[in-house]
Structure formats: structure tokens, C-alpha cells
Amino acid sequence: MARCTKEEAQETRSRIIDAAADVFYTRGLAQSSLGDVAEAAQVTRGAIYWHFKNKGDLFDALCERVRLPMESLMSTPLDAFKNDPLGHLRHTWIYLLRDVTQNPQSRKILDILFLKCELVDRDDPIWERQHQCYLKGQENMQRILGEAIALQQLPADLDTRMAALTLHGQVVGLLHNWLFSPSSFDLAEVAEPIIDACLDSLRYAPSLRVKAA
Predict the structure, then answer these.
(1) 125-150 and 55-63 are packed helices; what angle lies between their axes, rounded to 10 degrees?
(2) What are the tens digits of pLDDT across the range 90-130?
(3) pLDDT higher for 151 or 71?
(4) ∠ CA 132-138-143, rounded to 5°
(5) pTM for the structure as a whole
């Protein structure tokens, strides 16, 4: 049998990922098997194992197609925000929230992550990936907030750890609520004012200040 070309191999890989998105979205991650994905992609299980080591590796490839909430903060700021860390934070979150309402692929993948991804085994590479992503995102957010303090965009006594936890909880909670009930409010419409309200809380909330010793 003739060996497939690089382009054919890439097309097969992409088709497998497309099928995985549909299968995971319909059945949930835990209830889906690589056999289910192979059937949906109309390929053999061997073809899947040629491209992916296991379901975790396939899931990882699927997630690479969309910026996850905390991964969004790992990207290099646009030129417009190189000296504006708070602007970078604001732009990143607003873009993420609006993109999920306009990009069907982003919405499907985030729906899988938030509502159909049963993370129960801490030895599972999928759980580990999500955990490391969260920790790295928190670290990056604290760094960005620290840079904003240095440029006097935020109060000098802001507790960056508490601020990062608060902001993450607000934004991810908003995204989760919309994915759960998209007809209950217009996420694209409320994204900007809610993000601005979150950032205002960093500037003015006494409860987010470093406590005196």
C-alpha cells in the first residue's frame, strides 16, 4: 500500500480532531472512546494511534485549537499593550468572552472543557494539563498585576494573589454561566462592562489590599 503524503496525513489528523470535538461534545469526555472517534472520523483505530498516543493526547490537540481562559494570559501582548499591562489584561479577557460567542469551534471546545469534561483522576494527563494551565495562568496574572502596580495603574498595596483569584473567579464564572445557559444573557454585550467592573474592583476594593502586619 502506498504511503500517504504529508498533506494527506495532516488532513487525516485534522479530521480526527474534528470528529473528537463532535464526539466529546455529544457524549462527554469520560463516556467517549477512541473507537467512537475512529467511527465518527471514518478511520481505523490504528490511524488514530498513528497520530495520537491516547485519548489524553488527542484531547490536548483539540485544546490547542482554542485559547483556554488562563492560557490566554500567556501570549505576548500586542504592541499597543507593551507598556500597558492592565490594558493587555482587559483586552485579553474581552476578546476571549466575545470570541466564544462568535466562533463555533471555540464555543464547542470550551463547552466540552467546562460542562462535559469529568476530571476525577488526578493521575490522568488531562487533569494534569488543566491543573498546570491553571497554575501557570495564575502566576502570569499575578505578574501582569505586579507590572500594572509598578506603572501606577493599580494601587501599590494591592494583594496580587487575592486580586488574581478574584478576577479569575469572576471571569471564568461568567463564561461558565453563559455556556450553561446562553439564552439567559448576551455575553458579547456584557463582556466589556463586566470586565471593567472587575478591574475597578482591583482599584477600589479595600478587601483586596495587603493587610498590615
Answers:
(1) 30
(2) 988 898 899 899 988 888 888 888 888 776 566 666 777 77
(3) 151
(4) 125
(5) 0.77
